[in-house]
Design goal:
The protein is an alpha+beta fold. 19% of the residues lie in helices and 26% in strands.
């Protein structure tokens, strides 16, 4: 079964956080979005509400044109990298076991 393909705004994504989401998750997600757009102002933002994530890159396709995503979770936010397996990670921050993707769990606005 596939997730519903729904698109929206970042504000829509924040409004759709589950009720039991920790209160710090929204400020972390918003800070990560700011950091991404400050460093990559020409990025295309695509919010896939069905995936519960916002992707950023050179175009709307998540696996071939997006580079990074912000995905709120219950008590943290995943800052993910679609092709993270090839990124240097000297501090061992990247998590994941997939063929391509990796993510960092961001647990505070300060860490964002």
């Amino acid at each position: 079964m596939t997730k519903e393909a729904r698109f929206g705004s970042f504000d829509d994504l924040m409004r759709e956080l589950p009720p039991r989401t920790a209160p710090e998750v929204e400020p972390i997600a918003r800070r990560l979005r700011d950091v991404i757009l400050d460093g990559f102002p020409e990025a295309v933002e695509v919010v896939r509400l069905g995936d519960g994530a916002a992707s950023y890159g050179i175009g709307p396709r998540k696996m071939s044109e997006s580079h990074v995503y912000v995905m709120p979770q219950a008590v943290h936010v995943n800052l993910g990298f679609w092709h993270g397996v090839g990124l240097p990670d000297p501090e061992g921050l990247l998590e994941g076991t997939g063929a391509r993707m990796r993510h960092v769990k961001v647990r505070s606005k300060e860490d964002a």
